[in-house]
Amino acid sequence: MKHKNTIIFGIALVAIFGAIFGTRAWQESQPGQYDEFAQHLKDSGAVFYGASWCPHCAEQKALFGNSYKLLPYKECSVGATAASGQTQECKDAGITGYPTWRFADGSELSGQQSLEVLAEKTGYQLNGATTGSTRLKEGAEGDPNMIGGDASYGSEEEIASTTVIIE
């Protein structure tokens, strides 16, 4: 009887993990709400420079939901921390903070940007979708790009726009 209960428990556990990971894999395989916009950014010549360890880069990607996979993203980190260094491509591009958006006209925006700002910068119409507007909040010293500034992001509609500076 004890052996039978162990087998049943094992099967139930496998089924639960299968459902969890299967659902996640299915969700990630679905088209994103901003696929067309992400592709437009790429086609317009925009480049999003970031680092895997950068929380603001992760937040920037999260604004795009599943569409983040289509972003013109360049990974600048060669390791799991800022101390690990930067790729030669990002050094050559003069990237000094993350996230950094560079556009075909040579202009640049530092820090997390709202979808509206990116759309305006690249001439894209967002069709009135909810896009997670950004209102810039300042750090403790009044510098919105300062590391260690106030990390409170406000309501869900207010996403902090900050940059991680590389030294």
UniProtKB/TrEMBL annotation:
Q: Name it.
A: Thioredoxin domain-containing protein
Q: Write out the ranges of the annotated region (Disordered).
A: 129-153
Domain of life the protein comes from: Bacteria
InterPro entries from the UniProt entry: Thioredoxin-like_sf
